[in-house]
User: Fold these one by one.
Assistant:
Number 1:
Amino acid sequence: MDFNDIIGHEKIIESLKNAIRNNLVSHSYLFEGPKSIGKEKIARVFAKTLLCQKGGDSPCNTCPSCLKIESGNHPDFHVEYPDKDSFKKEQIEELQRTIRKIPLESNKKIYILDDVDKMTQQAQNSFLKTLEEPPGYAVIILLATNGYSLLPTIVSRCQVVKFTSVEKHKIEKALINIYNRTEEQARFISSFSNGIIGRAIELSKSDDFKLLRDETIEKLNIVINGDKLKAFSVSEFFEQNKELIDEIMDIILLWYRDLLIYKETGNIDFLINRDKTDLISCQCQKLSKQKIMDIIDVVNRTKDDIRSNVSFQLAMEVMLLKIQEV
Ligand SMILES: [Zn+2]
């Protein structure tokens, strides 16, 4: 793993490399951004570079230190995860004991703490002491989805690095070139994953996801064509895939987004579901622009209903009926 293997985040990588080149590496970092956006990958490559015996601004990947990191047994490199659902005080105290022992094989000792959002208040108070007076050789990298869950005194001790979505065209290119997806698959997945690169890669490897998307679109077609009885049979599909409802709802929204765009422009270049152009064109003939917009509205409202714990089955049935009626 190297900086070159990271998709997107060029500015962040450049600023980390700059810090290394100018000898301005901070003692503590807070990498903040959505899950699967690439925080841990970059943290690992950064750590590897800092420990690399060649001393460049990228890891050499051949020295004993780089090889030990790759195989997961470098004594000066530690990655900590929450114990079950949270970082507890005892875990932080253990870290504080080990961080005081000088590095064994290099002049640095690196700690990555993943999911620090899950650090208890007590643990944070205890951890603050380490951040206030870190040993000179230590570099601590905290990974968090949301820095708000941390004490302001912790955040202010860290150099904060904010991770944002990776551009869609970069994700598409990677899915095609590295993960052997077709242009159409890459286009759908990159739109669906909203710039979360880890999620895009995971989805592109999953046959189940492809199946789920095909099936969802097929069910929508039944709803648009069928009678009320059939709509209820479709609701069974939702019940069976209840745990995937967030994905299903997003598939539905992207579908109607495509219908709206096709209705407006008649241009297939802007479609996300470009492999289903025939079906899109066919449904467009049946639905007016206003109807499509009403459906999008209904789907968005149903998403809210599901989140606010309205009965799942009821929410879905109401949605399907409304899609048929609008
Ligand atoms: Zn090296």
Number 2:
Amino acid sequence: MLYDFRSFVNPGHYAFGKGNLKHLGELIDRRKNKTNDWTVFMIDHFFQDKKETLDRLPIGEKDLVFFIDTKDEPKTTLVNKYRDQILAHQSTLPAVVIGMGGGTTMDYAKATGLMVTNEGDSKDYQGLDKIKNEGIYTIVIPTVSGTGAEVSMTAVLSGPEKKLGIKCDYTIPNEVLFDPELLSTVTDEDRFFTGMDNYIHNVESLNGTWITSMGKAFAEKSNEICVDVFMNKYPDRLEADEKMMVASIMGGNSITYAQVGVCHALSYGLAVVLETHHGVANCIAFNQLEQYYPEGYKQFKEMQAFQGVDIPKGITAGCSDEDLDRMVDVAWANEHMWNNAFGPEWEKHISKAELKELYKKM
Ligand SMILES: [Fe+2]
């Protein structure tokens, strides 16, 4: 079964290369005009005390800087708050919104840039094609690889009831600045978890019913790079980081042209109820999915063993029956993911009771 017709959109501009951060000022200046002459910087809070990196950013007196707490997944309530602060900051709208960080920070920048020009509560825009107006010009700068947020049409947000992306043509970042040197501070563990997010995007695309030749080509190449990076020792980590930046772009495109599946649906339940970070939640869920993705599971376990990273276990042990049911409901609501995983009659292949058993094992 193929999804409805859609003409996909990619970021308008890419700049890829070591040391590219020094060109950020040029990219921003191109977008300024007499009226809209200031910038919003949304930066992962990890960099808050990294003076060396902050000093390289072209932050001017009129600009507004937010340090994004990335411990939790992006929330609709915070997007609304950032938007209100932006609207109160100057009498004009900003020319550019910068999102520098991992998937959480980039998704905040994408969603906030849209909410500046779309009235109301961001929770009312969760879903497909609900945004009315183009947002503020958004430049994202990934500092960790794997989420694919830098090229995806979705800004994934947790609202009061659901974890669901704002997804439309306008959600795509206008421009991406890739600088592999910015990945040097990522810990080996975080690098593994976000790298596995990428790996799982590809496994779910390749094993889904919505796979297309485009999605397949991106997913296969992306996972070739991913396995190379995580199954070999790279004396020069920068070389591996640069490769993973490319794998993340391709993995993001694999789900644009196909869709995620069982693991992402389950990980959303963990995110909403336990606030488990996306990459970690995916690994915890994928660790229980051998029956659905046997080949991917085998390779995942090999990479995990080679990297010597532990996947958390027992995180649902203290959950009440209501908590587990809520997780199941969040996962179940991602109909498009189940449809991709099993086809239009997906409810014949999986039940809420099975999901609950899977959650209990996590
Ligand atoms: Fe993901």
